[in-house]
Design a protein that fits this description.
This protein is an alpha+beta fold. The protein is built from 18 helices and 21 strands. The relative contact order is 0.10. It comes from Pleurotus eryngii.
Length: about 675
């Protein structure tokens, strides 16, 4: 790998960038094409080398920073040690090696022995109830299962006993009733595959049986028992689906029926999950733990690793493309994800603690190493010998209802995003309203989180209706969504146009009913429609945001109003009554108030949000509609259309910007389904 060049004159990506022709940061991995198995192994090894200077003398702890979490610092250093094992163990299982002077695969084997030894200075400590150490049992168990020649066989009898006792200590402890139960399964599975008699077969079966009660339909599992409505990346790449696929590979002889069922679920799930990715390799940010980055694509690699039958249009080449395009997106175009010394930062496209959870330590981002699981496949496996294929053409230009997660996915008009209703985290999580309650989430524009408790600029209120009852000092957004469902124009046959409908209650005496209508590919492919019916006993100030977009001009200075609203080559902001749009090299984002008789009329403004609210760009501008609602017995209405079209380039040489002809699409205003208009009680003016 070429040495890191901190600043070179190169193009930057559509998001997370400054402007072309300026000195902009480069990633340390730009010279690696990341097309082959050897390329991926080289990327992994460079990241492993970056951990060397941070590794303790005994190898058991990796200290990457000083920020705190709700758990202790020893557990955080255990994270730094354990999570890279997803990649290292896969590399070794596939016949590869990691030798980098004094820092090599044996460093981790020694660290495992020392970290589990109560008599060693670097002992991790025994597990307690609901202990963070439980999470790290998962990659350790995986390493024992797939690479015992490094992590088990060469160790002394005493070291093996220490590992058995430490991992086995999870069996009688209380665990969260979530995907965490998979960590105990992997602890026992690893001991079993390594040949230890310490594994608890009854405990493992009981955990698996209980985890199977999380299953819904269509391949989807929620992250918890009945009553939990949380189907984010923990239902897919971060935890449940990947765990099921690994289990189906490693336990297919001992547990054939369950293994076959897990692969059947994965086949169904894959056809939905495909729509969370765009043709450029980006995945839609949604939910918590976004700092895990390219772990978002780990499902595709796990599907290949498990040798699961693939439903059309998926092929080994399609899986390869889905995984590697996502990894290239991060490795080639997101310099803020890495330090110059090849370690991962806490954040998403740039270092940003506003978006993180209280369990994100400096070692947490290495959950991303789940994406390296296909390295466990031999070099002659079809996944590595087949040509990488593009995103399936039959899955482009579609709008698809996703019934279990209560999402509607769309990639028409060149924009991949989901409309969302009905999800919420079942326990306290930072910025939960932003991570689960927004109306839309985009692969190109991401989502934003609050950075303070006052002002709209601090709120980062993209794709949400923010309401205030104190003249705009404090704002509330949708968080606890109830009675959410997907409706069809013809409810009996479930045909015709469809939309999301939900109820939410920001105050006891305020109720909001929201309809989210996806793009009409034939009439207005760049638009989606939002309708809100508000019944309130208090006066409300309202601000509804569209998609937050990169807010700098060609000179890297803040965007200014355009001088000619008919010139689509200009970058800037346009405000005109109930219309507002913003253009930059990231594309175009706009909002229009749709005139409906009886609806409250609103005015548009391009709001510059506070720095570091958005996951993808630190400086964003947000098209926003402003209005007021007076208290009364009758419901009040907002009706609006949201346009968004991203640049066609990610890290390309051209200057990007919205595609030509976007202003013509701006004039093709969206239509509101008549079934919703009848609820308003009036017709379009």
């Amino acid at each position: 790998m070429a040495p890191h060049e901190p600043f070179i004159n190169r193009p930057s990506s559509t998001q997370c960038m400054s402007t072309p022709n300026l000195l902009t940061p480069s990633t340390p991995f730009a010279s690696n094409p990341l097309r082959t198995r050897d390329d991926l192994a080289a990327f992994l090894k460079t990241l492993l080398q970056g951990l060397g200077p941070h590794t303790s003398p005994g190898g058991a702890r990796i200290h990457l920073g000083f920020t705190g979490t709700h758990y202790d610092d020893i557990a955080a250093q255990l994270e730094g040690f354990a999570r890279p094992l997803w990649g290292l163990a896969s590399l070794l299982a596939g016949g590869g090696s990691y030798e980098s002077g004094d820092h090599n695969s044996r460093t981790w084997a020694t660290g495992l022995a020392n970290g589990t030894n109560p008599d060693h200075l670097e002992f991790w400590g025994n597990m307690r109830n609901k202990d963070q150490r439980m999470v790290e049992c998962s990659p350790i168990g995986f390493a024992l299962a797939v690479a015992p020649d490094t992590f088990w066989t060469p160790l002394s009898p005493k070291s093996k006993t220490c590992i058995e006792e430490w991992l086995g200590g999870i069996d009688d402890k209380e665990m969260p009733n979530t995907n965490w139960l998979w960590f105990r399964v992997f602890a026992n599975l690893g001991l079993k595959k390594a040949g230890s008699s310490r594994f608890d077969a009854a405990r493992m079966k009981a955990d698996l049986d209980h985890l199977d009660t999380f299953y819904l339909s269509g391949g989807w599992s929620r992250d918890g028992p009945p009553g939990v409505v949380q189907l984010d990346y923990y239902s897919s790449s971060f935890a449940i689906q990947v765990a099921q696929l690994i289990y189906s590979k490693l336990a297919k002889d001992e547990d054939p029926d369950r293994s076959a069922e897990y692969q059947r679920r994965a086949q169904q799930f894959a056809l939905d999950f495909l729509h969370y990715f765009d043709s450029q390799g980006r995945a839609i940010p949604f939910g918590r733990s976004m700092t895990y980055r390219f772990a978002m694509a780990a499902f595709w690699g796990a599907l290949a690793y498990a040798d699961a039958p693939l439903p059309a249009p998926l092929t080994p080449g399609v899986l390869k493309g889905l995984l590697l395009r996502n990894i290239r997106y991060w490795a080639h175009t997101q310099p803020g994800s890495f330090t110059p010394t090849h370690t991962l930062t806490i954040g998403f496209c740039y270092p940003n603690h506003n978006i993180t959870e209280n369990y994100n330590s400096p070692g947490s981002p290495y959950w991303a190493f789940k994406a390296f699981i296909p390295l466990a496949l031999p070099s002659d496996h079809v996944f590595w010998t087949v040509q990488e294929e593009d995103f399936p053409s039959v899955a482009l230009g579609v709008v698809r209802p996703l019934n279990e997660p209560l999402h509607i996915a769309s990639n028409v008009g060149g924009h991949t995003f989901i409309l969302s209703s009905g999800q919420q985290c079942s326990y306290a999580v930072k910025q939960s309203a932003a991570k689960y309650g927004k109306f839309a989430y985009s692969s190109a524009f991401g989502y934003s989180v609050p950075v303070g408790s006052l002002t709209l600029e601090e709120l980062g209120g993209d794709n949400t209706l923010a309401l205030s009852d104190d003249d705009g000092e404090v704002w509330k957004c949708r968080r606890d969504t109830r009675e959410a469902r997907i409706e069809y124009a013809d409810s009996a046959s479930r045909t015709g146009r469809f939309w999301l409908r939900s109820m939410w209650y920001p105050w006891p005496d305020v109720q909001v009913e929201t309809w989210l209508v996806p793009p009409d590919a034939d009439v207005s492919p760049l638009w989606h429609v939002r309708v809100h019916r508000i019944k309130t006993a208090r006066k409300l100030w309202a601000a509804e945001g569209g998609f937050a977009i990169y807010g700098q001009g060609r000179d890297a200075r803040a965007l200014e109003p355009v001088t000619d609203a008919a010139d689509e080559s200009q970058y800037g902001t346009m405000e005109k009554g109930g219309e507002v749009w913003v253009t930059s090299q990231a594309g175009a984002s706009g909002f229009v108030d749709i005139p409906v008789e009886g609806a409250v009329r609103r005015s548009g403004k391009a709001l510059r949000t506070d720095a570091n609210t958005n996951l993808m760009v630190p400086r964003a501008v947000l098209p926003t509609m402003f209005g007021q609602v007076e208290p009364g017995e009758e419901s009040k209405w907002f009706v609006g259309g949201v346009l968004a079209v991203p640049s066609e380039g990610v890290g390309e040489v051209h200057e990007s910007g919205p595609p030509k002809g976007w202003l013509m699409e701006w004039q093709r205003r969206p239509t509101v389904p008549s079934e919703i208009l009848s609820a308003v009680g009036e017709s379009i003016v």
